[in-house]
Design brief:
Blueprint (H helix, E strand, L loop, with lengths): L1 H10 L3 H13 L11 H11 L3 H12 L2
Length: about 70
């Protein structure tokens, strides 16, 4: 789990991308339920769309245990 978090910190989106996403969320006239910040999350969302919930959760668990 520690290695997953370390990797996420090293490869995650820069603070300005996260800040701009938050700004978009709080200032939107028509907010949505979710806002995504960064390219890494786009890969996860695409995977979720192509898998069952069970498959997706298994994949995420495996990724976290690396």
């Amino acid at each position: 789990m520690v290695s997953y978090i370390k990797h996420a910190l090293e490869t995650g989106p820069p603070p300005d991308v996260v800040a701009n996403t938050i700004l978009k969320a709080v200032t939107s006239e028509n907010p949505t339920m979710r806002y995504f910040a960064g390219k890494d999350v786009e890969k996860h969302i695409e995977a979720k769309r192509s898998m069952s919930d069970e498959e997706f959760h298994k994949m995420m668990k495996q990724n976290m245990m690396k």
